[in-house]
Amino acid sequence: MAIYTRTGDKGETSVIGGRVGKDDVRVEAYGTIDELNCFVGQARSLMEDERFADVREQLLEIQHELFDCGSDLAFVKLSENKYKVKSEMAVRLEGWIDVLQAENPVLERFILPGGSQLSSVLHVCRTVCRRAERRAVTLGRSADINPEAVVYLNRLSDYFFALARAANTRLEVAEVEYLRSKKVFRNK
User: Pick from 115, 72, 113, 69: which is nearest to 90 by CA?
Assistant: First the structure.
């Protein structure tokens, strides 16, 4: 089977239920999710030692869910009962975030993305996830979309932040605080 179809040679692509320009906001939304999924795969590939077995499995589940999320956004018209992204997925992410946060040092100031190579890639995941969320919000202003996809992406970026910090903690790599930051986080 050939992977090329030549049907997109004039700047259009197929979505579920029609054809749109390759620069359509819908394509931007699910395309950014696809980009995110690639970076998640890269992060997983950097987690070969046992210290990351738990989150390696979480990231595999997230990769499947990102396909679900992209699928939900690729539909021009989809009834609510066919959506793949459900509210329970964001709730599960919150539980994972809480576990990760418990192992992270107290945060008082903004931190610079980086530290270990793994943490750096996870920060890229966080920022691409935020962009995917913005694209989904933009799409939602002009089309009906699954609102749970936006909630999921919002929570997922928080997960990547917590995981990036946990990666540095597990690897015993210090985070670098943003030197010009005042203490902006109040720990209760």
Answer: 69
